[in-house]
Amino acid sequence: MVTWARTHPRVVDGAVAAAVFVINVPVQAAYVPGHLPRYPVALLVSAGLCLPYVYRRDRPVASFAATALVSLAQWGLGVIPAWANVMLFAGLYTVAASHDRRVSVAAAAVVELGAVLAALRWGGHPLEMAFQVFTATIFIVSVWMWGHTIGTRRAYVAGLRERAEQLERDRDNQARIAAAAERARIAREMHDIVSHSLSLIVVQANGAAHCMHSRPESAQRALTAISDIGQNALAEMRHMLEVLRDGTPDRDPYAPQPGLAQLQRLVEDVRRSGLPVKLTVHGEPRDLPSGIDLAAYRTVQEALTNTRKHAGSAVNTAQVWLRYGDDALELRITDDGRGVTAPSEQSSAGGHGLVGIRERVAAYGGSVRCGPAAGGGFEVVVTLPAQAGTPYVHAGSGRVARSSADVTNPPTT
Q: Any coiled-coil ranges, and where (predicted)?
């Protein structure tokens, strides 16, 4: 019943207005004894007082104004107030509950003026008139305060509901943004794994096909390298899919991702593809935040892959220079290839190459510079924030190699 009343407010208000009018009919007859010709006028006044109540929710001020005008006509016609005049107070309540204080106080002042006029016309003795005005004033103030309190409470509840809906919308937006960021991250990871591995596999496969008959031992080494590279890529892909898959994987899905501890193995894979690479390490390797460690590894991987794909046979050597600073990690990947014809920002897999490097580095507040090197070739220079920590030791692959064959003196900048 309550739910139905809330969904059909005009029907409810119409029923209330009709009930008041019906109750007022015999009461109004008692107020006009000996004046039956005026009874129809009194009924018309009663109807005029009750009818605007039906529209009080849609147009509170207009409904109250119409009721006030009928009351003024009642005063002018000399029709004695009866039960129907309670509708003026109902209109005051509605205005106080739905409008600001300025409008509601003005409505209360109109009702107060009507009470004074009614007391002057039908009050009789001055003391009786004063009592009537005093009583009416208390009632008017009570109705106004009741309506104002209800209106304030409704506004507070509406504000809470609006804030809750806004928070829900913000939560949904943040979830969509997080999902988009995660998709972008996965796309970068997939690109880095697939592009790098397939590039090396294609190079090794071409080399094996070229020397299969003339140098079968070289072809065998190339095929072995293809197998190793494929297995490494497959392991990384499985790791990524296990993180995304529901349920309990066979192994820990949150095992460490590739990092600088695997940099030596990455360089060796690239060497086996036919690209001479020199690795230079300056400073003491140490623990880094996992995100920065992965970003640094992927940066080197992507830069070497681009060198392999775009510079091709024009490259005689590539160099990877890594420096552990007190509060920063510096990377420089250079080659002596084509220089100005090196890969552009949009060249790799629809823009995931150097753009992916920029996005990774920017996510951690680092900086990237890509372009032709001063002495020819192409270079990628990256700086990542890295707080000082303990020396980095990886039980599985060891620390980054620093043998004389792999490590050269750091370049002067």
A: 157-184
Q: Does 145 map to a domain?
A: no
Residue 202 contacts by C-beta under 8 Å, 6 or more apart in sequence?
A: none
CATH number at residue 266: 3.30.565.10
Q: Are 341 and 376 in contact (CB under 8 A)?
A: no
Into how many domains does the chain fold?
Answer: 2
3-state class (DSSP) for residue 278: strand
Is residue 294 included in any domain, yes or no? yes
Report DSSP letters for 117-154, one per residue.
HHHHHH--SHHHHHHHHHHHHHHHHHHHHHHHHHHHHH
The pTM assigned to this predicted structure is: 0.47
Identify the three-state secondary structure at position 352: coil
103 assigned to some structural domain: yes
pLDDT of the chain, 413 residues: tens digit per residue: 667 767 777 888 888 888 888 888 877 766 655 555 567 888 888 888 889 989 888 899 999 999 999 988 888 887 777 778 889 999 999 999 999 889 999 999 999 998 898 888 887 788 888 898 999 999 999 999 999 999 999 999 999 999 999 999 898 888 888 777 767 766 776 766 676 677 778 777 887 787 887 888 877 877 887 887 777 777 767 766 655 554 444 444 444 578 898 899 889 888 887 788 999 999 888 888 877 888 898 899 888 888 877 766 667 888 999 999 988 999 999 988 765 444 444 444 334 567 778 888 888 889 999 888 887 888 999 999 986 443 433 333 333 433 333 444 444 43
Distance CA 201, CA 205 (A): 6
**Domain end call among 105, 122, 139:** 122
Work out the number of other CB atoms within 10 angstroms of the CB of residue 330. Answer: 20
333 in a structural domain: yes
**Domain hosting residue 102, numbered range:** 2-122
Per the CB < 8 A criterion, the answer to whether 307 and 337 are in contact is: yes
What value, to the nearest 5°, has the Cα angle with vertex 271 and ends 337 and 307? Answer: 30
